[in-house]
Specification:
The complex is a heterotrimer of chains A (283), B (827) and C (170). Chain A is of the alpha+beta class. Chain A is built from twelve helices and 14 strands. Chain A has three domains: 7-54, Uridine Diphospho-n-acetylenolpyruvylglucosamine Reductase, domain 2, CATH 3.30.43.10; 61-173, Uridine Diphospho-n-acetylenolpyruvylglucosamine Reductase, domain 3 (2-Layer Sandwich), CATH 3.30.465; 193-282, Enolase-like, domain 1. Chain A has helices spanning 14-24, 37-42, 78-83, 85-90, 92-99, 104-109, 112-118, 126-131, 149-152, 226-232, 239-246, 263-282, and strands spanning 7-9, 28-31, 50-53, 63-66, 69-73, 135-140, 143-148, 153-155, 158-159, 166-173, 179-185, 195-204, 207-216, 223-224. In chain A, a hairpin with a 2-residue loop joins strand 12 (195-204) and strand 13 (207-216). Chain C is of the alpha+beta class and 170 residues long. The two termini of chain C are 27 Å apart. Classes of the chains: A alpha+beta (283), B alpha+beta (827), C alpha+beta (170).
């Protein structure tokens, strides 16, 4: 199917892009990697008057180290994220989760910023970003602001990014030496996650000294499994202790019921997958 | 006359020839219908109903007509599309209820997706832009969604003019037919007998979508003397004749071309409303017109398959001998009758008794109208449903009787020395050897070893439990003996035609009436002709899919192309040889009685004198010197009408791992040994089995086309209709045994549907075998993780049965029904 | 309308396109490169896979304007002097296609995969082509073909073509 008509601009700087959005008004939309946006346009589920393509802004691409943070440009592709040494070393969870996003072709085009801004509750990168306490750098007419992950995801497909703002970068604290696992559960390889668990843990001398757990598709936004995190910390690493701690995984979630899963099944999966994710992360 | 060397090729039949078709397809030099780009070509977009059941009020096309590039916007009556009666060629009973099926709906829509208007524009994009602006005023009616509710007194009627939602009831009773006893009596006797039991089960065949990879497309060029239609169809010949009959066009003024066709699986056996609309618009405007569907349009409106409720009762002695089988079916036709839709479940009538000696059998099928997309042929058509029913039943009964499931089958199947065997459903199976296929499959599978592993995992209480499933199947294919089809009230015969044209240089053009769309006919048929005429494989060209060159044929479905069309080619080749023989004798200055034909060469017995058939072709072209009283022509034409179906069979064994914590089913091992008779090309046979398995396994594990309570299809995109990718399947271990068919001279049986027919129950039996230990006895297909987990928990009583909600996953952000996604958003 | 300049299968093209035109439409309708096909509208099927600046992409999910200044390689650009690419040859040798509709996308993705991982395991092949749907083959012979091509493309193997073509642009 063919998208409805729209105008198109391809700015070469963030300032130009912000200006283009302002000029475009309410019906202007941002094109990042386009791997969700273009299919949405093709199905005519979206009908923007102006598409602002961020693909020409070099400064939005790439991964760099800034002190105790790793900063990822919003337009860095999934492909580049999975291959980046800094991320593999310091923010392994995001690398692991990104490897499970869609397929090779989509990962070649799709971007970290685009996926996070899309905020699909079944998308695979929001829960890791939440678990990792990422910060979102957002540019607008009044300059830059930073939003914490906990405040970024507001609802289904809704984030803190304002209508005339652009997500420019995602900052991750370093989790050097932490183990990581993104445990994804879907019906077929191409399907979106029914539930997934993002877990990264620090194990020292057989004891879990720190843990971060995020849940995918257990609510309209990603959910932090803080109950599990606190139950894990200080425990001796064993299957038994991990599985016991994982029983808290469904606390504070509000999963939906649909053709793939009832809410009680999602709650059950969250517990099972949390146990598996933590055990694999602690590896 | 010179002596010729016998340089005929080695035997071609049985060789694993690489395909002739491949070169174009792997380099992109393809001719899909949508590739057609004619000067002045106009494009269609069809306006479709979002409602399952509604009266159509006014249609306002004024805004649509303002879009630049729009040539016309037509409602149904503007082009007479509402008056069309699209054909159903299989009225299964004399009193079958048959609604009018228009090409576009005039006053009422009966399923979501039915066309109500059409936009014609210079580009497909402009047509779509305009289609979105067509305003249709609908008054919604109650949808009709549940077959059992639909048959109740006072139910909302899909077609009030029919007075009922029942299309037809079709019954076979072996007591009445004289082919066996009365199943009703057998069941009631069993209920009274101490040494017998009656076991009853209900199974559901979910609704599926064929999902051929090439979306349907039709181009009509009305500018020549013959109106030309290119269409992505399996049935160009049937389409041509039906267009003539349906639209009152002179048949000789229509030419239908099926160019490269990207898969069909039954889904392209149709006279589609869109084909008719494209033709009507092209005629009205006198311009070439193209319609190409989107995938979501295809999922919504191209015909679906399966969708049955099966109530099956088996009477059996406690030591495992089947005494009677009673089958009651409800089959969902959807809103209208497709080309062969009503007959699809009836094809299953002959297959529920399968490979077993069943003394009494009754089959009672009621076809029901609902406000859903119509159902029609999908790979296997009727036979997968029957095979599933009986093979699930064999496991259920074995469990009830405490018998090993393969042992129970062995007690009841037809033994190899009993062939030919006439079944309780009146078919005569010519050949088969179930013992041989089963022995080989059990060995390849390591059945005993896997049973031991299963036991160990159970004892350990592993999270991942093993299940083993069996399907020992046969099927009837090679459609079909024309007289049998006549007795079933089918609207056509089942013969097939082939012609051989011997060109002056000795090359052979073989014109066939079957119409391939991925099967590899050009290769396999060339192998047959190469052997029969003794000419090189490379010297044979197979012509198909254009009614101008191939004027006579009944196309490709029901695994008939080789078993029927292939035999027509053999007959035509025999005629070529017979016609060439007197000419060869003349050339060799010998008596015809002294001429023998071997490996492409006519030779004089007892001498080294000979002439090749390709030289005879040149001689008749020159025609300078040939015998008196015969034509200078060795071309030939033959039609073959089979005397019987062919009956491939096989043993399929599946092992799955069920994750008891999540319900996820992982294929662990799959072995099948199929007997498809003589194999022309083992590579192609193996490929057909692989693909068939993937589709049958997908029914068991992955695919379903559900509707919500308003009659909206929930699997409207490939996000929601979950086809397996390579990552979801495993390597299959396949092998063949062979008992050549005795009803055709090649000894071949069909292979196209076997894998699909056999595999589904093997997988579901395996899933159940893994979880029966918890008290689970059935899980609806597809056996999704949610359903498996729910079944385990319900059986264990550890959790309440969760309700499935009729909505697409919120994660399916691209899903057609993701209503909760705000428009746009920052993506 | 936007002006774009692309190199497709080694030839340079300049055209005015509507911003909404998809790359696959541009290839098919404007350049006549109908070897690349459309199988869905949600980027699931992968039939439209081409290489864009050396990486496989689904050309139904890229706007033609986004390809401005880029190199595109389609299935029609793989043959060199009448010699099939080793992956094309392997698809033929292993009967890895039936109807052939998914084949262009499968071949382009397989080439990308082998550029990235020259010696994939069966599982790696399966995951490497998970974005491409086939309805005919059950994938078994496709997996076989990709592994066969991998062997033939290894340095030192007797390949019909230099292995350097893998994953590269035209």
């Amino acid at each position: 199917m063919i998208p409805a008509s729209f105008d198109y601009v391809r700015p070469t700087s963030v300032a130009e892009a912000v200006q283009a959005l302002a000029d475009g008004g309410d019906d202007a939309k941002i094109l990042a990697g386009g791997q969700s946006f273009i299919p949405v346009l093709r199905l005519r589920m979206g009908d923007p008057s102006l598409v602002v393509d961020l693909g020409g802004i070099a400064e939005l691409r790439g991964v760099r180290e800034e002190g105790d943070k790793i900063v990822v440009g919003a337009m860095t592709t999934h492909h580049d994220v999975t291959r980046d040494d800094l991320l593999n070393q310091h923010v392994k969870l995001i690398s692991e989760a990104t490897k499970t996003v869609a397929d090779f072709q989509v990962r070649h085009r799709g971007t970290l910023g685009g996926a996070l801004a899309h905020a699909d509750p079944a998308g695979d990168l929001a829960a890791p970003a939440l678990a990792l306490d990422a910060e979102f750098v957002i540019a607008g007419a009044n300059g830059e602001r930073t939003v914490a992950a906990g405040d970024f995801f507001e609802d289904y497909f809704t984030t803190a990014i304002g209508p005339q703002e652009i997500l420019t970068a995602i900052r991750f604290p370093k989790y050097t030496g932490w183990g990581a696992r993104y445990e994804k559960f879907n019906r077929v390889a191409q399907a979106w996650s029914i539930v997934a668990v993002a877990a990264t843990v620090k194990v020292e001398g057989g004891t879990i000294t720190d843990a971060r757990i995020g849940l995918t598709n257990m609510a309209g936004t990603p959910v932090r499994a803080r109950g599990v995190e606190s139950a894990l910390v200080g425990q001796t690493m064993s299957e038994e202790t991990v599985r016991a701690a994982a029983q808290a995984a469904a606390e504070g979630t509000s999963p939906t019921s649909d053709a793939d899963a009832g809410s009680d099944y999602r709650e059950h999966l969250a517990k099972v997958l949390t146990g598996r994710a933590v055990l694999a992360a602690a590896g | 006359m010179t002596t010729v060397e016998n340089n005929a090729p080695a035997q071609e039949i049985g060789r694993d020839r690489r395909r002739k078709e491949d070169r174009r397809l792997i380099t992109g030099r393809t001719r899909w219908t949508d590739n057609q780009a004619l000067t002045g070509l106009l494009h269609l977009s069809i306006v479709r109903s979002p409602f399952a059941h509604a009266e159509i009020g006014s249609i306002d096309t004024s805004a649509a007509k303002q879009i630049p590039g729009v040539v016309a916007v037509y409602t149904a009556s503007d082009i007479g599309a509402d008056a069309v009666q699209l054909p159903c060629a299989w009225p299964i009973t004399k009193d079958m209820k048959s609604p009018q099926r228009p090409a576009l709906a005039g006053s009422r829509v009966n399923f979501a997706g039915e066309g109500v208007a059409v936009v014609v524009a210079r580009s497909a994009a402009a047509a779509k832009d305009a289609a979105e602006l067509v305003e249709v005023d609908y008054t919604e009616l109650e949808p009709v969604l549940d077959m059992e509710e639909a048959l109740k007194e006072g139910a909302t009627l899909v077609h009030p003019e029919l007075g009922t939602n029942e299309n037809a009831q079709w019954v076979f009773d072996s007591g009445e037919a004289g082919s066996g006893g009365s199943a009703t009596e057998a069941l009631s006797a069993a209920e009274k007998a101490d040494d017998q039991v009656v076991i009853t089960r209900r199974f559901r065949q979910q609704r599926l979508v064929p999902v051929f990879m090439e979306p349907r497309s039709t181009v009509v060029d009305p500018s020549g003397e013959q109106l030309v239609m290119w269409s992505s169809t399996q049935v160009p010949h049937i389409l041509k004749t039906m267009l003539a009959l349906t639209l009152g066009l002179p048949e000789h003024k229509i030419r239908v071309i099926a160019p490269d066709v990207g898969g069909g699986f039954g889904g392209k056996i149709a006279v589609a409303p869109e084909e008719v609309v494209t033709l009507l618009v092209a005629q009205k405007l006198g311009k070439p017109v193209k319609w190409t569907e989107t995938r979501s349009e295809s999922l919504l409106t191209a015909h679906h398959g399966r969708d049955q409720i099966q109530d099956i009762s088996m009477a059996v002695t406690k030591d495992g001998i089947i005494k009677g089988l009673d089958v009651k079916l409800l089959a969902d036709m959807g809103a209208y009758l497709g080309l062969v839709g009503p007959g699809v479940p009836i094809l299953g009538a002959f297959m529920f008794n399968a490979i077993y000696k069943i003394p009494a059998y009754r089959f009672d099928c009621t076809n029901v109208f609902t406000t859903k997309t119509l159902t029609d042929a999908y790979r296997g058509a009727g036979r997968p449903e029957a095979t599933f029913g009986i093979e699930r039943m064999m496991d259920e009964v074995a469990v009830e009787l405490g018998l090993e499931p393969m042992e129970f089958r062995k007690k009841n199947w037809i033994k190899h020395e009993e062939f030919p065997f006439t079944t309780v459903s009146t078919l005569t199976y010519d050949t088969g050897n179930y013992e041989a296929a089963t022995d080989q499959a059990m060995q390849m599978f390591d059945y005993d070893g896997l049973r031991r592993e299963q036991e160990e995992r159970r004892k350990r209480g592993d999270v991942k439990q093993l299940g083993l499933g069996i399907s020992t199947f046969t099927e009837m294919c090679g459609l079909a003996p024309s007289r049998v089809l006549g007795s079933l009230d089918y609207g056509a015969g089942g013969w097939e035609t082939a012609s051989i044209r011997m060109l002056p240089t000795g090359k052979a053009e073989v014109v066939v009436g079957v119409s391939p769309h991925g099967q590899g006919h050009e290769t396999a048929f060339s192998q047959i002709i190469a052997d029969k005429l003794g000419v090189p494989f490379e010297d044979v060209e197979i012509l198909h899919g254009d009614t101008q060159s191939s004027y006579r044929g009944l196309d490709t479905y029901g695994s008939r192309s080789l078993a029927v069309g292939g035999i027509a080619m053999v007959k035509a080749a025999e005629k070529v040889v017979a016609k060439a023989k007197p000419i060869a004798a003349h050339m060799l200055e010998a008596s015809e009685d002294d001429i023998e034909f071997t490996a492409g060469k006519f030779s004089v017995k007892g001498t080294d004198k000979g002439v090749g058939i390709q030289d005879v072709a040149l001689a008749v072209f020159a025609a300078h010197d040939y015998p008196e009283g015969i034509e200078p022509d060795i071309d030939a034409h033959a039609t073959f009408d089979p005397e019987n179906f062919s009956y491939p069979h096989g043993t399929h064994l599946c092992a799955v791992e069920v994750d008891t914590e999540t319900g996820f089913v992982q294929l662990h091992k799959y072995v099948c040994v199929d007997d498809v008779g003589t194999v022309i090309n083992p590579l192609i046979v193996e490929g057909q089995i692989h693909g068939g398995l993937a589709q049958g396994i997908a029914q068991a594990l992955f695919e379903e086309a559900p509707y919500d309570e308003s009659g909206t299809l929930l699997s409207g995109t490939l996000v929601d209709y979950t086809l397996p990718s390579a990552a979801d399947l495993i390597n299959f271990d396949t092998a063949n045994t062979s008992t050549p068919s005795t009803t055709n001279p090649l000894g071949v049986k069909g292979v196209g549907e076997a894998g699909t027919i056999a595999s589904t129950p093997a997988v579901v039996n395996a899933v159940l075998d893994a979880v029966r230990q918890y008290g689970v006895s059935d899980i609806d297909m597809p056996t999704t993780p949610f359903r498996v987990w729910t079944a385990i928990n319900s059986a264990k009583g550890t959790a309440g049965r969760a309700d499935e909600a009729d909505v697409a996953s919120p994660g399916a952000g691209l899903g057609s029904t993701a209503k909760d996604m705000p428009e746009g958003g920052n993506l | 309308m936007a002006r774009i300049r692309t190199t497709v299968d080694g030839l340079v093209y300049e055209d005015d396109v509507e911003p909404r035109m998809l790359l696959v439409q541009y290839l098919r309708e404007r350049l006549g490169k109908t070897g690349t096909v459309i199988g869905c509208d949600t980027s699931n099927c992968g039939a439209c896979t081409v290489h864009l600046d050396g990486l496989s992409v689904k050309s139904c999910s890229v706007l033609a304007v986004q390809a401005n200044g880029s190199e595109v390689l389609t299935v029609e650009g793989l043959e060199r002097d009448g010699q099939l690419h080793p992956v094309q040859q392997a698809f033929h040798d292993n009967h890895a296609l039936q109807c052939g509709y998914c084949t262009p996308g499968m071949i382009m993705q397989s080439i990308d995969l082998l550029g990235d991982n020259p010696d994939p395991t069966e599982q790696e092949v399966r995951e490497g082509i998970e974005g491409n749907l086939c309805r005919c083959t059950g994938y078994q012979n496709i997996v076989r073909a990709v592994q066969d091509a991998a062997q033939k493309m290894k340095p030192g193997a007797t390949a019909s073509q230099p292995a350097s073509v893998a994953g590269g642009g035209a």
